[in-house]
């Protein structure tokens, strides 16, 4: 069988699997969720799992990693183990509202004793039945099924994930911490659908940690839709710390309303194949968006950050800074799409992607993509792929620092610009330590996550 | 302390140093002068172990050790210090962190335990005062956004922190106004001791009014063509280099 026909088969098999599971997936879910499955299926039939022939996936071929033979968890009954995941947050002086998902499903043992009035944290499944009006209003609105084949696949198979709802004017000081765990005894396909709704004038921070706890292969397709109301201030911190046999497509689709302010700061500390899709629609005037990303790759890891900022309305500001350090024969890519619509005058959009390649075998592709249809705007972009600064290295060594120590100091210095943007002080401290440990090669065993303390002692990174 | 014998060095097959001989004893200050392109900065780079330059012949003995066997960091730990002509900006590395790491690496080399945080801060305060460096500068990233004068003062501050046996000041006076020059020179003079030696590389007599040398050497086309006392610098200031070039060509 030729490779091409195998690829077609993969897509066909995903479609067949869906058709087999559709009734179980749809059972008890909100009608809108079920209607969108069919719309998504039609789109997916045309596109299939993306390979490098798809322009937006030019640098990341997903077809070899999403295997239809992997087990898929559909309903509660499919979960083998629902015991407490033995969790302890290890960021000192940080009180958080913690919630787990296990293999893409909301952990039933999550409890939130002191949650402010009106705030809802629950499973996606429960949310669609308990809050049909919110589901009707928000579900599937930002993550358009026709925008991306992986969104289509996710929408077809949407069943569970987490939902965070923050009512009008609510200000939550403590971050909400989501810990996504992967643990099973067979290879797993995980389809997680999340929803975050921040109503007008609210303020909150969400930290999302992605971890693998067992050594199986995981193919994760997660979509998180985020709605930010007028004048709301919202920060999202991401930390991906997974073993090398993980493939993750993490889609974050954000819509911002007038005067809102959003920051996304994502750290890919360790993983296998990662594709982050970050889409932001600035659907209101005077919005501010800050996207930051840091990725540290070695061995054969691959991290692809794809961002799309859509300036729909005038007077908005967006700024992007993505930086990465690539060692061994790792690879990565960055795409920064910025769309300035015809009436989005007075747009300010800035973008920067900088990469440090430590070996001649490491590889990086970077692609700024600006489409500007308004005439009174300020946009800039810059991209660099470079090596360690030999002059700086010599300067440090001439003061008595060993070559290795000087290298670590310079790598760390390269990343600090992104880490400095973290506004939660104890988290920033912890991330600093984590990044330094990573550069010293002390994280190779994935003993446990330093940020959230999740144990992963039986894992060895391949 | 330092003995250079018949030193030859090249960069990209171009020979820059063509047989340098120089001996420096403890406590001495040597000035090295010479026209542009004569090899002054190459000499300082070769002494501190910059691998852009290849030593093709000759020996450098520093404190009884053959320098050619030592990495740049070990040369520093043995007590050699270069004040860079163009100090490098390193965003993201704080001066404090940089200096603490450097000091502790030096101590480790000598078999001493790391310095405690309070001792280190005390030392920083002392040395900052000594070289009259603005205390804010040490809170910033290494040389990032520093003015020319601040960068040079920062070099002298690092020198004061590391207490080297041999300091090489590579055109430390270039780009300095008269006040900054005095502060830098004062710093150097305060660190002077019978055990410590200094090599001052400069174009101008001006700096030597403040840091008075025991010997002045003229470097031309990769060789020392003339050595004398401090009066030579005055003569050069007056007559320029042409007469030496002429003498040498003849």
Helix content of chain A: 10-25%
Percent of residues in β-strands of chain A: 35-45%
Proportion in β-strands of chain B: 25-35%
Count of DSSP E strands of chain B?
12
Low-confidence stretches of chain B: none
The residue-averaged pLDDT of chain A reads: 90
CATH class of chain B equals: Alpha Beta
Main β sheet profile of chain B: 6 strands, mixed
What Rg of chain A do the Cα atoms give?
A: 21 Å
* Overall form of chain B: globular
| Oligomerization | heterodimer
Using only C-alpha atoms, the radius of gyration of chain B works out to: 18 Å
Order of helices and strands of chain A: HHEEEEHHHEEEEEEEEEEEEEEEEHHH
**CATH homologous superfamily annotation of chain B:** P-loop containing nucleotide triphosphate hydrolases
Explain what this protein looks like in three dimensions.
The complex is a heterodimer of chains A (462) and B (250). Chain A is of the alpha/beta class and 462 residues long. Chain A has one domain (3-387). Chain A is 22% helix and 36% strand. In chain A, helix 2 (31-47) packs across helix 5 (149-156), helix 6 (390-397) crosses helix 7 (403-419) and helix 7 packs antiparallel against helix 8 (425-439). The longest helix of chain A is centred in the N-terminal third of the chain and has 24 residues, at 3-26. Chain B has 250 residues and is α/β, with parallel strands linked by helices. Chain B has a single domain, classed as Rossmann fold, CATH 3.40.50. Helices cover 38% and strands 28% of the residues of chain B. The longest helix of chain B is centred in the middle third of the chain and has 15 residues, at 95-109. Chain B is globular, with a radius of gyration of 18 Å. The two termini of chain B are 34 Å apart. The relative contact order of chain B is 0.18. The mean pLDDT of chain B is 91. Chain A binds chain B through residues 389, 391-392, 394-403, 405-406, 409-410, 412-417, and chain B through 48-50, 71-73, 75-77, 81-82, 84, 87-88, 90-93, 97-98, 101-102, 105-106, 109, 141, 158, 162.
